[in-house]
Each structure stands twice: as structure tokens, then as C-alpha cells.
Design goal:
Layout: E1 5-10, H1 14-26, H2 36-42, E2 47-55, E3 61-70, E4 85-88, E5 97-99, H3 105-123, E6 125-131, E7 146-157, H4 162-168, H5 171-182, E8 186-190, H6 196-210, H7 220-228, E9 236-243, E10 246-255, E11 259-267, H8 276-290, E12 295-299, H9 307-313, E13 320-329, H10 332-348
Parallel strand pairs: 4-6, 11-12
Antiparallel strand pairs: 1-2, 2-3, 3-4, 3-5, 6-13, 7-12, 7-13, 8-9, 9-10, 10-11
Helix pairs in contact: 2-7, 5-8
């Protein structure tokens, strides 16, 4: 079989962005986390949006969007003429997507991984961390790295009649939705982000109340970029719960041709007793079914099996998918060297540094 070709796309080069967008728009999956606008919006200053496109003569493709993290500016690295990088997938779900005939799946996956790994060696990529898509069958096969199931994600199956959805909810969900309706709450879908300021007020309030990490306090500009890029491509909508003229619960949903992804949101603590978020999810389920979608990914909890996960799983009991991460050391020698350099650097500052066993790569923990 004739070999395929691997193309690198840089999310900071206009011509590459055009190729990236065109491929995304014409692809079957159109995973929102792969759109160049999404990676641009969610990037920090030290991350460069990148993607690789593997095209095979059979017509099959493998597409993988990620961030390239330059390591040379880190204090403990020191002076080096060699560029050093770490790859990390965007917040949410990632990994290389395979599109093509099933009979070539294994062979083309192996060819992609071989070509990809060879280029990573040339470019000085030391390590790679992937938050993998929960729909594992969509991903190219990868044999390298440590593959770890982190937790389960709750997923509502949307291809049901409304009555069947209602019967399938756990009792507490039906009770809470009835209560929300009885208090006169209304749900509005907002694909254009007309209520962005109201969304941000509730979202930031929720992050402060829950003690979220600073990385979750995305600037308003991030949401504006999302709106004019991914939103313009039909890849998102906001959904709000109104009490009269006031929004009391809100969420940003990411969209693919068959899936709703619960992304960011919050609820005013003073309004919890009205159960607005139960109503928001109930109406999103009905909306998704009307749109012909198949899945509503609610996600997991802060830790495996916690109360947040139990709340989400109550909307479709037993419908769960495993969420995996992949940790790859592409250059084991340099990986260990960087880890040792980090330890020495901290020791010189009087700090006894110990790498976190739950964090990858170790040298950044």
C-alpha cells in the first residue's frame, strides 16, 4: 500500500489556519475541541495551537489538534541551543481522529503513529499528554505511552421519545424538574452569546464559590473568540434559565454533528432550591433530540464517583463512558534529564521537590 503524508499546521500562520478550518468544516466528526478557534481561545501565552493532518491514498485521514508547549523558557532548563517541547491536548477531549474505511483502520493507524513519532523526534518533542475522546472508536489506534482510565463520564443518549427520557430519569431529577417548572422558570437557547455578560457574572461567581483553580477563570476575550470562530461555524450555544428577566443558571454547550458537550457554566447559589440546573439539562436533552443529535456528554466529577458525577448520571442511569488519558515519553533520556534538572533547580533554592505521581509530565509537576 502506498504510504500517506503527514502535514503540520500552525495555528498562528493564516494559511495553515485556512487549511485547518476547511478540513474541520468538511470532516464528519467536527469535534468542537479540534477547531482552530477553540484552541486559540483556550490557549495560554506559552502554548501554540498546532495540528497534524495525515492523508492516505485510500482516502482515509487522521487529524490531531493539540498545543505545542515550548520548554526552553522554563527557569530550570538553562541555556540550550536545542528546542524542547511538550505536547498537550486542549481542555476537554482530544486525540487523533480516524476517518476512513474500517478495513484499513489498523494499518493506517500504525503508519500514522510511525510517521508522527519520527517527526516528533526531529522537532525535539519530549513528552505528550492527551485527554482522550470518550468515543474511543473514533480515535486512531496508538500503541505508545501509558494509557490510563481516569474516571467515568455520564452521557445521555438522546435518541428516545420525550416520555421515555422522563421515565428514565432518576426520581430526584423528575422531582426537581417539576419544582423548577412550578416556580415559573424558563429556558432560552442563545447561540449568538447575547447574554455573555450575564453568563460571565454567574460563571465567575461559581468558580469563586467552588474554589476553582485560576486557570478556569477564562477572560471575556476567550468567550468572544469562541463566539466569532467556533460559534460562527455552529459549534456552540449558550443556554440560560430565566426567572422573570433575570438569569439564575447558565451553561455553554459545545456542539458536533451528533453530540452536545457540557462545557462551562454555573448557578446562583441563592437559587439552588428552585432547581434551575435540572431544568436546564432537561430542556437541553429535549432540544438535542429535536436537533437530531445522539449524545449529551455531561462529563465526570472532580474525583471519580463523587456527588457531581452522581448528579449527572441521574439523567441517564448506567449510561457511562470511560475517560482515558495518555502519557507518552517520546524521548525517555531527555525526559529523565529534565526531571533531574527540575529537582536540582529546586534544591538550589532550598526546596525539597518531589514529583507528583498524579501529574504528567513529572518535570512540570
Amino acid at each position: 500500500m502506498t504510504q500517506g503524508k503527514l502535514y503540520w499546521l500552525n495555528g498562528k500562520i493564516p494559511d495553515d489556519i485556512d487549511v485547518w478550518k476547511t478540513f474541520w468544516e468538511e470532516s464528519v466528526t467536527r469535534r468542537p475541541h479540534d477547531h482552530p478557534g477553540y484552541l486559540r481561545a483556550m490557549a495560554t501565552l506559552d502554548l501554540t495551537p498546532m495540528a497534524v493532518l495525515f492523508e492516505h491514498p485510500t482516502g482515509a485521514t487522521i487529524f490531531y489538534a493539540f498545543y505545542l508547549h515550548s520548554l526552553n523558557n522554563l527557569e530550570f532548563i538553562g541555556d540550550t541551543i536545542c528546542p524542547l517541547f511538550h505536547i498537550v491536548s486542549p481542555y476537554g477531549y482530544g486525540g487523533p481522529i480516524y476517518q476512513g474505511q474500517a478495513k484499513y483502520y489498523e494499518e493506517i493507524s500504525a503508519e500514522f503513529e510511525s510517521a508522527f513519532n519520527a517527526v516528533l523526534q526531529e522537532r525535539g518533542v519530549i513528552s505528550e499528554f492527551v485527554r482522550e475522546d470518550i468515543f474511543q472508536e473514533r480515535l486512531a489506534i496508538r500503541l505508545y505511552g501509558r494509557h490510563v482510565q481516569q474516571q467515568l463520564n455520564a452521557v445521555v443518549r438522546l435518541e428516545r421519545d420525550p416520555e421515555e427520557h422522563w421515565r428514565n430519569y432518576k426520581h430526584k431529577v423528575r422531582k426537581n424538574v417539576k419544582k423548577a417548572i412550578s416556580t415559573g422558570l424558563k429556558v432560552v437557547f442563545d447561540p449568538n452569546g447575547e447574554y455573555l455578560d450575564e453568563f460571565l457574572k454567574i460563571y465567575y461567581n461559581t468558580m469563586e464559590r467552588t474554589g476553582a483553580r485560576s486557570s478556569f477563570f477564562f477572560a471575556k476575550e476567550c468567550f468572544e473568540v469562541l463566539g466569532c470562530t467556533l460559534g460562527a461555524a455552529g459549534g456552540l450555544t449558550y443556554v440560560h434559565v430565566f426567572e422573570g428577566e433575570r438569569i439564575i443558571s447558565t451553561e455553554l454547550l459545545l456542539l458536533s454533528p451528533d453530540t452536545i458537550y457540557s462545557f462551562l457554566g454555573g448557578t446562583l447559589a441563592s437559587e439552588f432550591d428552585k432547581r434551575p440546573n435540572d431544568l436546564l439539562k432537561h430542556e437541553t436533552i429535549l432540544w438535542g433530540r429535536r436537533q437530531g443529535l445522539k449524545y449529551y456528554v455531561l462529563g465526570g466529577g472532580v474525583s471519580p464517583g463523587d456527588g457531581i458525577f452522581a448528579y449527572k448520571e441521574a439523567f441517564d442511569p448506567g449510561s457511562v463512558y470511560a475517560f482515558f488519558i495518555r502519557e507518552v515519553q517520546h524521548d525517555i533520556g531527555k525526559y529523565n534529564q529534565l526531571t533531574q534538572l527540575r529537582k536540582q533547580f529546586e534544591a538550589e533554592r532550598g526546596i525539597e521537590w518531589k514529583q507528583r505521581p498524579d501529574f504528567f509530565p513529572a518535570y512540570l509537576s
